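Structure tokens please, single chain.
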Amino acid sequence: MSIVNEIKVDFLSVPENEGFARLTISAFLLPLNPTMSELSDVKTAVSEAVTNAIIHGYQGKLGTVRMRATLTDKRFLTVDITDNGVGIPDLKQAMQPFWTSVDGFERSGMGFTVMESFMDSIDVASKVGSGTTVRLYKQLESGRPAAKEA
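Here you go.
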């Protein structure tokens, strides 16, 4: 497989940029004419990963979140969401449903579970004091005709 398209976008770790990330990944995918389900799945997973970076990675401090998306000639999508925040001390625990690192905050602790539900697979790499990268994988349907321009 070879990469046919790629984007890299850096943005501040402010909550408003979660919506920006969703719109950006949508714009990246739209020329492929994805199914509504595929588009919704990817947007939801990206939203969860970006929210985790902002809330848990930076814990109220400003930092940079990087989104990198690649698409292969076989319509295989990879999206990396990276922060340079506090990192995750216990990755196995953090990936358990209902666990959250933020006490007294209205968080369900379902971020990784949601990402896993909507993507084909995910990988998480984290180092305490250095940050976290969440890699999302999705095989898009093949053979869908491109959207026709009006």
